[in-house]
Amino acid sequence: MNFVLPEIDLGAIAPQLWLTATAILVLMVQAFVPLVTSRSLALLSIIGSLLSLVATLGLWGQEAVLFSGMIALDTFSLFFNVVFLLGAILTVLISVEYLEREQIAHGEYFALVLFATVGMMIMAAGVDLIAIFIGLEILSLSLYVLAGFMRQVLRSNESAMKYFLLGAFATGFFLYGIALLYGATGSTNLDRIFLIAGERGGWGNVLVMGGMGLLLVGFGFKVASVPFHMWTPDVYEGAPTPISAFMSTAAKAGAFAAFVRVFLYSLPGLAASWAPLLAGMAVLSMVVGTLLALVQRRNIKRLLAYSSIVHVGYLLLGLLSGGTEGGASVLFYLLAYTFMQVGAFAVVVYLGGQGEDDLSLARFSGVAVRHPVAALAFSLFLLSLAGIPPTAGFVGKFYIFSAAIQAGHIGLAVVGVLTSVVSLYYYLGVIVFMYMRDPVDLPERRPSAALVTALALAVAGTVEMGLFPGSLLDLAQQSVASLLGS
């Protein structure tokens, strides 16, 4: 038997190749270059990420199917590449000061961030469930290690173990869902599933429904939607703060990329079956996340974790709306959320102490007196997360709710608006602590150039997407249109 290897267009996978090569180079430099600093490794990681970003922009508008129909090069995957790379670059920038302060400056940290980003890219480009699963595992394995990177801190070890056990459990659901869909359709290719799934009756239809439901469970865990959210606050609290930011933005975007491709592209004919489940997850995420955030005062990272569950509800609402408008609102909001959420965590990195034993709201009392710029930036990010105009968060929520109303989900849109209004209470609560309470003694420190750069980029992105959203929304619509063929 002759085995013929498929022809591979290396240029089409240049973004992934640049990141992979950079990650390997970081590991080699760490191993063989004496006295190398974390700043040097961070700079190397950023250069590799920028080269990958340039390669992504250079491929814009091209379309191809690679690796025997496993991977697609299209505008949809390229848009997500930009989101992933921005998230990775911002994460690396806010990690430099944090790693030095916590004395955990190891090169494998940056390599794992890059490998995780490669996994996200594969998930976004996957047009076969096997490819999506491979990307998911690359992402997950990297995050399991990063979540417990502070090996000397018990809380970090506990969070990594919890994330690993629950993640492995969710992966089992995802794999079994793939198996059922394969049994029903005879293929793991999304195009084949699209053609066959809606035509099967009897036991074939039961298998399709079962597989679809199990995939929904797997995706629900990865995006941290209710009722699959239990791991989120503990893992976000115990993980290194930059990794908490990375998990809540870029990693979540990777899961949503696959979510959109599978359900809007491959299973739209079964929307009558999965839409009610998705609607329930969206409502529960918005309501339960809001209620949990309202009573959270112990830790600012837990507050941001609970609030991230609410934002997952908004994103699920956009996904439920379907079509070009609904899908584009998800893409736009994920990009906006990356800027404002990483920016908020960047301020937490700056104001946090070594070991982060105390990240309660009391620690932020009177911050505006000693650190006025940090307080102003944090206020901007929190107001954007709350959806106050003219920020990126307001525009993103406006497009999601508009898409939901156009799709006939008026009740869900009302729930979204109400939870967004209620969220003002816990976001403004942090701002009140910063501006209207007596200051506490915080160690005087100058932020690193990398952290200042990250904050500047996050502020610029949050403001720019709020004031001038048109061009980015057009790109998001083009990306979804290229996926759906509309």
Detailed description of the structure:
This protein is mainly α and 486 residues long. The protein has one domain (10-484). The protein has 19 helices and two strands. The chain has helices at 14-32, 38-58, 75-102, 107-125, 129-147, 154-185, 190-197, 202-223, 232-238, 241-266, 271-294, 300-321, 323-351, 367-370, 372-386, 392-406, 410-436, 449-467, 470-484; strands at residues 64-66, 71-73. Strands 1-2 form a two-stranded antiparallel ribbon. A hairpin with a 4-residue loop joins strand 1 and strand 2 (71-73). Helix 9 (232-238) runs antiparallel to helix 10 (241-266). The longest helix has 32 residues, at 154-185. The chain is globular and about 65 Å long. It starts with 13 loop residues before the first helix and ends with a helix. Belongs to the complex I subunit 2 family. It is an enzyme of class 7 (translocase).
